[in-house]
Amino acid sequence: MAMQDLDPSEFKTQAPDAHGQVSTLKELGDEMKAKLARLGLMIAEEAGAGTYLQRDQTTSLCSTRSKGVEVLPIRQALQRYDWLKDYSWVAVKADTDKFTRDAASAPPDVVQGYFVRGLKGQVERAPVQTCLYVESRSTKQVVHNIVIAEEGSEINIITGCLAHGGIGRAMHEGISEFYVKKGAKVTFTMIHEWQEQMEVRPRTAIVLDEGAAFINNYIALKPVGSIQSNPIAYLNGDNSRVMFQTILYGKGSSRMDLGSRAVLKGRNTSAEMVSRIITRDKADVVARGLIVGDAPGAKGHLECRGLLLSDTSRIDSIPELDAKNPDVNITHEAAVGKISPDEINYLMARGATEDEATSMIINGFLSFDLSELPPEIAKETKKLVDQTMKGL
Amino acid sequence: MLDIRNISVSVGEGKERKPVLKDLSLHVEDGEVHVIFGPNGSGKTTLVQTMLGYPGYTIDSGKIEIDGADITQLPINERVARGLGVVFQHPPAVRGIKLNDMANLVLKKKNTDDVLPETADWAKRLNMEAFLKRDVNYGFSGGEKKRAEVMQIILQNPSFLLLDEPDSGVDVENVEIIGRLLNKFLQRDLKPQARKKAAVIITHLGYLLNFVKTDRAHVLCDGQFLCSGDPKEIYANILKNGFDKCQNSCLYSVREEAGCVVPDGTGRE
Fold first, then answer.
1. Residues of chain B with C-beta less than 8 angstroms from the C-beta of A369
2. Residues of chain B with pLDDT under 70
3. Are B195 and B30 in contact (CB under 8 A)?
4. Contact A376/A386 with Cβ under 8 angstroms?
5. Cα(B132)–Cα(B141) distance, rounded to whole angstroms?
6. In terms of CA atoms, which chain B residue is nearest residue A351?
7. What ipTM describes this predicted complex?
8. What is the pLDDT of residue A221?
9. Domain presence at residue B267
10. Hey, is the C-beta of A340 within 8 angstroms of any chain B C-beta?
11. Alpha-carbon gap, residue A318 to A321, rounded angstroms
12. In a domain, B269, yes or no
């Protein structure tokens, strides 16, 4: 089945009151707590700036503990702030495809999601944690998130998207719109931990004003039925920058079609895209990347590296560079293949066993740049990747 | 002590199979440093990789011993555990593995990312401090790679060291730096009876010999040692005659001018 063949009308959304509310994550059931802890999502309870938890269509928990950020359920935010409608379905157009049309046409009281706002001039390094949990059988979770980092602010978000065990075939349809204002910075670390039969269609867009920065880290280490996502960043403001880092571990019969796009419209804007992909079993991964250079001084680099650990998996790397101005510098490099025997032999010649050498190479392969992240998120992210690698 | 006894090695499979080393023997006592000269294609790389146990080389006969233990069939890491160490000619770049990770690997401190004091010390001496947190060999110049190799090997502290073309692709200044360090590492500054480290240096240049004292030289041509003898004399001879037409320029001139024994089986002395 091609990615576009999925029919969102096959799935039914849950009622907004299907699940109860909690006042702290500690009140959740053991399975959820364990999963959240594994993804590093229990950290914000005490040390974080805010927390949002959505189970199917129920906002179970939403709290803000920082003066620098505001975290609200999207419905409530749209009611409270009239101006917010100018940010709703603007970066992501409702008629983009059948999934955006489906989400846009859902009854307003059903759609849930988070609104996160970094208040003007406030730098908040403590993480905002959000969690989108698909909990019921055969359901479709419809989510609409809006994140606004006001001028000179900084927000650091860690978000986990995961599914309850044994719910069968289910769907997640998530719209996320980011607006990063002048001189503001957003780091967004997203960890996906779905199930073998989940169909996942996030649609994400980011708009950057002058001097703004958006750092996106995406990690998917567990099997999924199918996922298709290709966020787009519009670097409209001069000197704005984006970085997309992606770590994928495709196994089982996961089908992943993932990428990132950056449109460098402002002068001296920059985009960096780095993806690391490991596949085994019958996993099928398409790794896309597009950088459009459309202003003097625009600079971009796209790097995709893939390791195939089985004969039956596949990595299709599709890097695209589109220069619309002679004064741009955009480049890409891609390398896909198996682990080099030379590298294994080299590590063995320094005393590692063959298994140790293989695991060192895979670990190193998946290491990524955590320097932009606050220490709590960097630590949890590293821990998560390390744990997964132990199970390879 | 390293003992290679009558080893014959071939590469490739089926019809492609080709003998490379032919009944080759080499005996290196503890405390000795031998040098093997040979032109391109003489079998130097095969010899190095056979000693290390790299896949792709079939040992048709003979055996390799370290300190009396047969290592012929052991995997690479078990040879290393028995005291073998190597400075590679072309070490591969490994993305995601830092030079410091390699240092921690040889120091058997695999579960830390910290820079250990001995690593910091040698990195400083080799002017490699800025490279410790970089992916090993990635974007390193020829000299930087060699210094990284020497740093790892000194930290690993093997009792038997294999140096594969340590002076190729390295500028004069770096050859001197690593040459002097290796000379010290191999205890060449001690009295012969006090030396414990042994080494084989494989080279086609010989420039390193200006800094590392060696005990014995061998000339490898077409998978066999054509002669063995005093390193200085043999090296002088090679400088004069080169390796072209191995059989002629090496064999006869070495025989005549360096006066070494030619085990070519022809009986001509």
1. none
2. 243-269
3. yes
4. no
5. 15
6. B77
7. 0.91
8. 87
9. no
10. yes
11. 10
12. no
